[in-house]
Amino acid sequence: MDDLNDPRISAYRPQRRLLIPAPPGPRRKPSKAARELEARREARAEARTSRLHLVGLTSAWTLVMAVVLAVIVIMFVLVLLSRH
Length: 84
Fold this sequence. Notes:
Elements: H1 32-83
């Protein structure tokens, strides 16, 4: 991962990257511990995503209800002023 604060890295000049080929032979299967760790990591990420999604929906619902309430109050005030 590049450090964006590194003065040797320029955003305006593309960096040269060495493409290293994969080693010959079949890929090794990750160990059971590594697979379990990855599964736990994915489960935590999924739970975090669902929590953030619920928070986003709650925030959106709050904003929509605030706008609807403001419109109702304004209409009520206009009706009271027009009857007077």
